[in-house]
Structures are given as C-alpha cells and as structure tokens.
Design goal:
Blueprint (H helix, E strand, L loop, with lengths): L2 E4 L20 E4 L18 H10 L9 H7 L5 E2 L12 H6 L8 H21 L5 H22 L2 E3 L11 E3 L1 H15 L17 H19 L11 H14 L22 E9 L1 H5 L15 E2 L1 H4 L10 E2 L13 E4 L1 E2 L18 E2 L15 E3 L8 E6 H14 L3 H15 L9 H12 L5 H8 L23 H6 L10
Antiparallel strand pairs: 1-2, 3-7, 4-5, 6-13, 8-9, 9-12, 10-11
Helix pairs in contact: 1-4, 1-5, 2-4, 4-5, 5-6, 5-7, 6-7, 7-8, 7-11, 8-11, 11-12, 11-13, 13-14
C-alpha cells in the first residue's frame, strides 16, 4: 500500500509532536489507517475516540509484515535465516546483517521498528486525551502498554512526551525499568474495563485474556528488564514468577482451551485459542515469505529455518509438520509445519523448479549468500487453503509461559506436568525430565516463527552464542541501537553500549 509522508508540524504523526518520540524526520504511515488532525500550539489535539481507536487497532497490521518489528525478533534468532539467492533478497545486506548480528544505528529495519512502535504509542495517547468511554480507555491503555513493552524490550529505553507539552520540549526518556512499570500500571488499570471476550477469530481488539497474557510475558521477562547489565545474568524473582502463573491461570475463565490439532490454531476454523488477531493482515505474508516460486500459490522464495533448530524436534511431535497424501487428496501439495525434501504439486505429482528444471527438493543446508533456489527448510503455519487472520496472541503461549515460571520457581514437576498437558493436546509424546536448555526448546516447538524467539533467547542467555552463518557473540547485541536519526533529534537519548 502506498504510504503518505508525514511532514513536520502538519499531521497527527509528525515526528516532532509524538508523545512517545521517534526520529524527528519525515515518517511513513499508511494513509488509509491514519486519522489526520492538526495539533494546536501546545501539541495536544482531541479527536473522535471511536475513529482513533479503530485506526490504532488497524495499526496492529505492522506485526504481519516480514520486515521491521518481525525481522528484529526473528532474523536475529536461531529459528530463521534469510539467504540471498542470486540477486533475490540481497537488499544491500539488510537481512544478512540481522542474522549475523552486524547491524548498526543506521539499519533500515532498526529505524523502521523504532518509528512504527513509537508512532503507534502516540496514537493511544490521542485516544486517552479524547474523552473515550471506559472500554475505549481500557483498550487504549492495553495498546499503550503493548507498545511500551515492545520498545523497552528491543531498545532498552522509551522516550516520552506529556500530551500538553509543546514541540520545543525534548522528550524525557524512561529507563527500561520505568517503562515496564508504566506498562504494568496501564494493564492493571485497564483490566476491569476490558471486555471479557472468549476465543474467536473475530477478536480484533484487546480483551481481559490479552491483558493477562501480556502481563505474563512482562513478568516472565522482568528480571531482564530490571538487570543492571542488559546482557545478564538475570535473577528471576519468585513473586514475578507467581504473577506469571496467576495471570495464565486467569485466562481459562473466559473459555480458552487448547486446540486438539496444532495447525488448526492457524486456520479460519480455529475456535478455542485465539485471543487477539490483526483485523488488517491475514497469515498470507507468512507463507509468501518462504514458499518457492514454483509452488501453488507462488511465494517469494525467501526465508528458511535452520537445520539445527529443526533437529531439536521429536519426529513424533506433530508440530514438526504433516504432509499431503501421495495423490494430494488430503489437502493441497503444500504441507504444514516444516517443509523438507521433495515437494509435490496439488495433484500429488513431483514438483519441478521452473527455473532449474530440476525436481524441487528443500535441503537441510542453506548458506546465507549464494543460496540455490531449493536450499533451506521452509515453515508453514498459515496454510493457503484455510488460513485465518494473523494471530497477535494465542492461548498456546500461555502454557509455555506458565511452565517456565514454574521451572524458575523450583517446581520442575509442575512445569513438566504443564508441558505434558500441552504436548498431549498437540499429540506429542510426553516428557519426563526438564532442563533450562530443553525448556527453551519446548518454547520453540510451540511458538516457532511467531515473533518472540529473540526475547526468549535473551532471557535464556543463548542470544550471544553461535549458530549457522552467525559467529558474532557480542553480548551488547541483546539491545538494538537507538537509531541515529533519533539521537540527532533528542539530546536526552544516549546510545546503547556497543554502538
């Protein structure tokens, strides 16, 4: 969709009038999703809270894209690699530098994520300053907490401007701890007035379950956010872990339960796990970014998984994937889960790579540069034949959050029981033991390619290790740099260590 360039001083999202401050340069926002207002001289503008909330909910579509926010969370992790194939996906190294941990403050997606998150945080303050109803206020506070958490998680600080401050005031900067405490306060204030909606593919606005799940994420990571050294080590407070457990347990009262088939979670027929979806973006991007040109539908032949991550799965765990019957009668020739080896057409015939004229077979190995078209294991959760809207939050994550909190509280037996309940619902074999390493694996089995792996690896202390095509072990990479344009605009911002 063509973007409008917002110019300083004229539009709602001018960089110099953001309550949560991004770079003081022209910012790109999807014009159809924005309410254009003129600020008065002190920077405050009231508007129609219904329209403003609708626009803010539309903006959750940022999480459906393969670039910016998602790329910082996934391409930097051990779950995904963005190989360059000839001239395809080179893009001046923008993908490779993320995977290899060699990004810098001028990286396009670092700036893009910073701008997107801070712009969206500003919209929530427009809602809160526009006489919203109690429910609208609660949903706006949930959204603000969600974005504050995201900025703090990725960048370690959150710039903040009061709604009645003029454009000449340099935004102050919340520390990581201050930002997370602010997000928790917003969520606790929002909870009583959020709707108590049960699971549905139509959950396009935050509800009580979304607040509980977000609180469980935040408390699970609170030791990271409170650490004097962003790279750790981290000391997990037992009280925080109990709050994770309590918030997860609270979700069930609204009717949420695990699906009895894993890939059903991502279909239009999902009924029991869906907490929050994007009303603007489907799961289409997630298959387009990985499927081969010769598959039906044709994809962009981009991102793949790493063999070392794929090898962690038990072959009897259905979450690793299922494949079409030889005659293609079960579903289309595209499988679900990890796609490896020979690929098939819809009629069950062997699929041929239209470019090389060879049988299309996805290989385990994949170099980050100079990759042949069939290199790399693909992953499909949203299937072209029956995909639902893009999931922002779902109930399966709650189980791995609870299990980790139990484990970190010393209740290993309880953690095993929680994971085995999840595994039973997925049809996977049960486990009888658990270590910190295998617990991280369990999180990956349930949530791979869903945009949270980097945060998990940081918390588990594995982000500064090596994997295929990644040798950098610099611990300061647990935080991204403050974009150079933002530093140039706000003297209260200080660059993160290592940049």
């Amino acid at each position: 969709m063509k973007s409008n360039i917002l110019t300083k001083g004229l539009l709602l999202l001018s960089a110099c009038t953001l309550l949560f401050f991004s770079a003081c340069t022209d910012l790109e926002v999807e014009g159809t999703d924005s309410i254009i207002l003129e600020p008065n001289e002190d920077g405050f503008t009231a508007g129609d809270p219904t329209q403003l909330l609708e626009a803010a909910l539309n903006d959750l579509s940022a999480f459906t894209d393969q670039a910016n926010i998602y790329s910082l969370s996934q391409h930097t992790s051990d779950e995904m690699i963005p190989p360059t194939r000839g001239v395809d996906w080179g893009d001046n190294g923008v993908w490779r530098t993320l995977h290899q941990h060699t990004w810098d403050p001028t990286h396009a997606y670092v700036l893009g994520a910073w701008n997107q998150l801070n712009e969206r945080a500003f919209k929530t303050n427009q809602i809160l300053a526009s006489n919203p109803s109690a429910e609208q206020e609660a949903q706006a506070k949930w959204l603000r907490a969600f974005y504050v958490y995201q900025v703090a998680d990725l960048f370690g600080v959150v710039p903040f401007r009061e709604v009645d401050e003029g454009v000449d005031v340099d935004p102050r900067v919340f520390s990581r701890t201050e930002a997370i405490d602010f997000a928790i306060s917003d969520l606790e204030a929002a909870l009583p007035n959020l709707p108590g909606d049960g699971p549905s593919n139509d959950n396009t606005g935050p509800n009580k379950a979304a607040a509980h799940l977000l609180l469980s994420r935040i408390y699970l990571n609170r030791a990271v956010y409170n650490s004097a050294d962003a790279a750790g080590p981290y000391t997990h407070d037992s009280g925080d872990m109990q709050k994770v457990i309590d918030n997860v347990d609270a979700i069930a009262q609204y009717g949420y339960a695990l699906e009895d088939e894993y890939f059903k979670v991502f279909t239009k027929d999902a009924t029991s796990e869906i907490i929050l979806v994007s009303n603007q973006g489907s799961g289409q991007n997630r298959w387009m970014m990985t499927l081969h040109y010769s598959q039906n539908p044709s994809g962009w032949n981009g991102f793949t998984s790493l063999a070392s991550f794929y090898d962690k799965f038990d072959e009897n765990d259905p979450r690793i994937g299922n494949y079409p019957t030889p005659d293609g009668s079960e579903f289309s020739g595209i499988g679900r889960g990890f796609l490896i080896g020979q690929q098939y057409a819809d009629d069950g015939s062997v699929l041929v790579d239209e470019r090389t004229k060879l049988d299309l077979s996805f290989t385990r190995d994949v170099p980050i540069a100079g990759a042949a078209t069939g290199k790399g294991i693909r992953a499909i959760k949203y299937h072209p034949s029956d995909h639902g809207p893009y999931r922002i939050m779902r109930y399966g994550e709650a189980y791995v959050n609870k299990a980790e909190a139990q484990f970190r509280s010393g209740d290993t037996d309880g953690a095993i029981a929680t994971l085995n309940e999840l595994r039973a619902a997925r049809g996977a074999p049960s486990i009888s033991s658990l270590t910190e390493e295998s617990l991280l694996d369990e999180r990956g089995f349930e949530t791979y390619w869903e945009g949270i792996r980097r945060t998990d690896q940081v918390r588990f202390g594995t982000f500064a290790t090596t994997w295929e095509e990644k040798t950098i072990t610099d611990p300061t990479r647990v935080l991204f740099p403050i974009p150079q344009q933002a530093l140039d605009s706000n003297p209260n911002l200080v660059q993160n260590a290592g940049y």
